């Protein structure tokens, strides 16, 4: 089963791609192909089987780590309400959480019909510092993908669903977007997704301390607006990972639509300058 889970994402993407190609041939060139639906069904089945949790899986106790942000935020898609929190165990997301900056003055744009999309600077989360939740080693750090405009309207949400389908075909790097992954030790890894382009302050191999700035919140990958997607997992590669429960010191696990305030971090002094970028 482990081997199947390893090859399943590539197999599913092949099925999606074949379905799209055959559907285009039928729609634009009138070439009928019942195989298109066979590939669609196969892709759905492969995805479903590969993302189910192992039978009788028992998750470890929540790992307590520091919050990845500071200030006032709102929780969405929280594991406090359901597991898997994002509707899938794929990519180690079973206990993932999304949070958006929610200032008390109500300056975060509301979801609605208009405007269709907004520039990222309209959202208070954009550019917010992402902090190391514990001591560890950076095992992956990418920030080359562009930040796209928001999808926080009903028409744009429909576009996001179609866009998400295509991103999934392209692979997890297009779903997660720019990201940072930290090895916390003992087979536990922290992943920060949708990082702002060009905002990395660490590189692979760097040692980090709790509360140290890693990058900035952005709007890359499969994202409706600038927000932080955070998760713990048992493998550095989301394609092979299972999620791990977490709790944030001083916060716990905020429920859906719950606002919380993360305190300012207590940052330990760096022992050397090797983490500084030139």
UniProtKB/TrEMBL annotation:
Domain of life: Bacteria
A Pfam family reported for this protein in Swiss-Prot or TrEMBL: Peptidase_M23
Transmembrane segments: none
GO MF terms, alphabetically ordered: metalloendopeptidase activity
Region (Disordered): 259-278
InterPro entries xref list: Cell_wall_metabolism_enzyme, Dup_hybrid_motif, M23ase_b-sheet_dom
Domain M23ase beta-sheet core: 170-235
Name of the protein this chain belongs to: Peptidase
Upper taxonomic lineage: Bacteria, Bacillati, Actinomycetota, Actinomycetes, Kitasatosporales
């Amino acid at each position: 089963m482990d081997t199947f889970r390893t090859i399943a994402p590539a197999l599913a993407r092949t099925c999606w791609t074949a379905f799209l190609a055959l559907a285009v041939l039928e729609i634009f060139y009138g070439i009928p192909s019942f195989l298109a639906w066979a590939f669609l069904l196969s892709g759905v089945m492969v995805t479903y089987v590969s993302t189910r949790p192992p039978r009788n899986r028992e998750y470890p106790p929540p790992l307590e780590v520091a919050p990845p942000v500071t200030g006032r935020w709102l929780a969405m898609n929280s594991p406090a309400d359901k597991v898997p929190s994002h509707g899938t165990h794929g990519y180690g997301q079973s206990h993932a959480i999304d949070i958006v900056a929610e200032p008390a003055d109500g300056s975060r744009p509301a979801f609605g019909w208009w405007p269709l999309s907004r520039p990222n600077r309209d959202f208070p989360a954009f550019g917010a510092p992402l902090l190391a939740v514990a001591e560890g080693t950076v095992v992956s750090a990418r920030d080359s993908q562009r930040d796209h405009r928001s999808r926080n309207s009903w028409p744009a949400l429909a576009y996001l669903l179609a866009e998400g389908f295509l991103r999934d075909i392209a692979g997890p790097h297009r779903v997660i977007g720019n990201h940072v992954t930290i090895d916390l030790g003992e087979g536990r890894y922290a992943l920060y997704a949708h990082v702002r382009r060009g905002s990395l302050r660490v590189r692979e191999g760097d040692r980090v301390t709790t509360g140290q700035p890693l990058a900035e919140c952005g709007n890359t990958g499969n994202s409706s607006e600038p927000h932080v997607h955070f998760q713990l997992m048992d493998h550095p590669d989301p394609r092979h990972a299972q999620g791990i429960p977490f709790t944030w010191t001083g916060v716990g696990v905020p429920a859906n639509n719950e606002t919380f305030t993360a305190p300012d971090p207590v940052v330990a002094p760096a022992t050397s300058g090797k983490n500084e970028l030139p």
